[in-house]
Design a protein that fits this description.
By secondary structure, the chain is α+β, with helices and mostly antiparallel strands. It is built from 5 helices and 7 strands, in the order ββββαααβαβαβ. The chain has one domain (about 1-155): 2-Layer Sandwich (60s Ribosomal Protein L30, Chain: A). The strands form 2 sheets. The protein has a 5-stranded mixed beta sheet. A two-stranded antiparallel sheet has the order 2-3. It is an enzyme of class 4 (lyase).
């Protein structure tokens, strides 16, 4: 059994659509990012890579590489999961917490879990996504951005 942790934080300020967990969320601002800015998937990628001791998202997808400009993060996740599977790992479970004052995430969580279940080919019951606010504290409390934490447990086949 191996456990990995991932974290990501992006600030608002882009005209890009707001995409979290592969779900388009109607909101007045998007997240500033080189890729599509899907911080939930980015944190999961880092958690999976951490559990497999294979580095981090920037190792595989550097932000200065134009090839990844505005790329759909679900493509990145599938790519990383293919590499980790080649190391003979299965996912036991993934646990995610989104930290945002606004927009509210609860209406979209089922769809996020469904996307991850499909992309990682695991049961939806093995994926937990929760959301919380920062109680109006700090940059998230001021609605300047969104953060996400993820934990992944891998089991060697």
């Amino acid at each position: 059994m191996r456990i990995g942790y991932g974290f990501d934080l992006h600030s608002f300020g882009s005209k890009k659509p707001l995409i979290i967990g592969g779900v388009l969320i109607p909101y007045k601002k998007g997240l500033i990012a080189h890729s599509d800015g899907d911080l939930l998937i980015h944190s999961i990628i880092d958690a999976l890579l951490g559990a497999a001791a294979m580095g981090d998202i920037g190792t595989f997808f550097p932000s200065d590489n134009k090839m990844y400009k505005n790329i759909n993060s679900r493509i990145l996740l599938k790519n990383i999961w293919t590499k980790i599977r080649l190391e003979n790992y299965n996912i036991s479970n993934i646990d995610v917490t989104i930290i945002a004052e606004d927009p509210k995430m609860s209406p979209y969580i089922f769809f996020m879990r469904s996307n991850l279940s499909l992309d990682l080919n695991i049961k939806i019951d093995n994926i937990s996504i929760k959301s919380t606010s920062s109680k109006k504290i700090g940059c998230i409390g001021r609605k300047e951005g969104i953060a996400c934490q993820a934990i992944a447990m891998l089991i060697k086949k």
